[in-house]
Amino acid sequence: MYVERQIYIRSHGHVQFISLSPLTQTAFALIAFICLTWVAYSSVNVVFKEQIIAAKERRYVKMQSSYEERLARLQSAYDELNGQLIITEERFLATTRQIEEKHKQLSILMGQRQSAGSTLDTMRSKYASVANGQQASAGAAGNSVLMRVDGTGEGGSAVLHTTARPDAQGVDAARFVIEQPEDGAAIDVTELAGARAGKPNEVVAQIDARLAQLDQAQQGLINNVEELTDRRLRELKSIVSMTKVVDPEALLKRSASGSAQGGPFIELAGGLELAGGDESAFAKQLFRVSQNLKKVADLEESIARMPLAEPLTHYRRTSSYGPRRDPFNGRMAFHSGEDFAAPHGTRVYSPGVGTVTFAGWRGGYGRVVEIDHGNGFKTRYGHLGSMSVKVGQKIAFRDVIGRVGSSGRSSGPHLHYEVWFDGIVRNPSKFIEAGHYVFAKQG
Q1: How far is CA 241 from CA 113, 236, 244, 308, 430, in A?
Q2: Would you say 381 and 420 are in contact if contact means Cβ atoms under 8 Å apart?
């Protein structure tokens, strides 16, 4: 397009020309195009300046609004997550406190169980020490404590602990940890909203697992206690029934504490309610076991007052309760007790606690001692060679009340032993048989 061109200039009769090469023409064309483009752009900016600025502002406002909306969504999500973590932490703290309350109630229950079994255990020890002629430690024989709350008892499930960190260590008392008995590690529920916030699901799963194990262990413990308590209650009732003189329930009503009530306080409305609503059943079960333990304690207290132990440690039965041939005249007669032959001077022991109501000479009985054991039970000891007690004296289990002799209507040294209930003489052998079951039973 750009061939070499010449521009002629005529001035004052002279003609001059300028030669334009193709390259020069191209350069001028390019310069002209640039100038025209700049003029057009400037003109458009001048004419449409406000519209362009407004469009840019709208675009910036739209971008800013988009960023703010996104930030708001992120903040809302963060607040929601943080709120859930706080709620979860509070829930676990509340759950931990409630499980600790259950643990406390179980501790009280175990104390009640140990107390309930202490009476007969002490009697067994004293019975064994008298029989063996040596001192036995209290509680060495007999029923052992069912299970320790810390899980170290025989046959018991390991019960996990929830503990509050002490203020003395500079840690907030509201922080609770759940022990990991396998490796000694611990989960801190406060980490849910702290350093472990990035992995909340893992922490929640770990805590749920530990709380589930704790709840399962506690439930296993109360089930075990209930089973053993029910079995113990049946055994005690069977002991009372073996005497064939009184019904166990009637004996409970006769006991001094039969009308008393007690046991740990367990609030059924909200006191032990965890997620799932099963804790009301646990509370009812705990209350039921507590009531049965109270019955066990009352029955053991009543049995402790029953004349179940033998009055002599070594003897030979020479005459039983009921009809027999009289040793002096040979005629049939009713024998109101049991005759135990033993060497003269053999110690006679009280078969239970009580109060001496008579100690002296009474006709054919010779020297006789009578003891009131309460609940309608009374024992009588005849033909004694000597007496070691006096009227009104309080007698403990296995206290020496006298020595075997042959006073009164007697054919030789022996003890005439009677058991009375509600003013009616009973068969002493039934009580002794029940006593054999009580004092020979070792858990």
Answers
A1: 23, 9, 5, 12, 10
A2: no
Kindly report the length of the chain: 443
| Fold classified for 316-440 | Glucose Permease (Domain IIA) (2.70.70)
Distance CA 384, CA 348 (A): 9
Q: CA–CA distance from 263 to each of 228, 298, 356, 392 (Å)?
A: 18, 13, 34, 34
Segment among 32-46, 272-286, 392-406 with least mean pLDDT: 272-286
CA distances (Å), origin 62, targets 58, 114, 129, 385 = 6, 77, 97, 118
| CA atoms in the 13 A half-sphere facing the CB of 432 | 19
What ranges do the domains of the chain cover? 5-81, 87-305, 316-440
Integer Cα distance of 400 and 22 in angstroms: 149
Structure tokens at 299: 């029955």
Start-end of H helices in 117-199: 118-132
CB burial of residue 346 (10 Å; 0-12, 13-18, 19+): buried
SS3 of residue 33 by DSSP? helix
pLDDT classification of 156: cutoffs 50, 70, 90: very low
Highest-pLDDT range among 81-95, 104-118, 227-241, 279-293: 227-241
Please work out, in degrees rounded to the nearest 5, the angle formed at the alpha carbon of residue 102 by the alpha carbons of 98 and 108: 140
The torsion angles phi and psi of 335, rounded to 5 degrees, stand at -100, 120
The two tokens of residue 174 are 């509201």
Amino acid at 164: A
Q: Whole-number mean pLDDT of the chain?
A: 77
pLDDT in tens, 315-356: 999 988 988 887 777 788 888 899 999 999 999 999 989 999
CA 386/CA 161 separation, integer angstroms = 60
Query: For the segment 73-100, what is each residue's pLDDT rounded down to a tens digit?
Result: 999 888 888 888 888 778 778 777 877 7
Q: Pull the structure tokens for residue 52.
A: 């362009």
pTM exceeding the 0.85 threshold for the entire prediction? no
Structure tokens at 363: 């006709």
Amino acid at 315: Y
Give the contacts of 166 (CB within 8 A, at least 6 positions apart): 173
Question: Residue 439's closest CA among 123, 88, 31?
Answer: 123
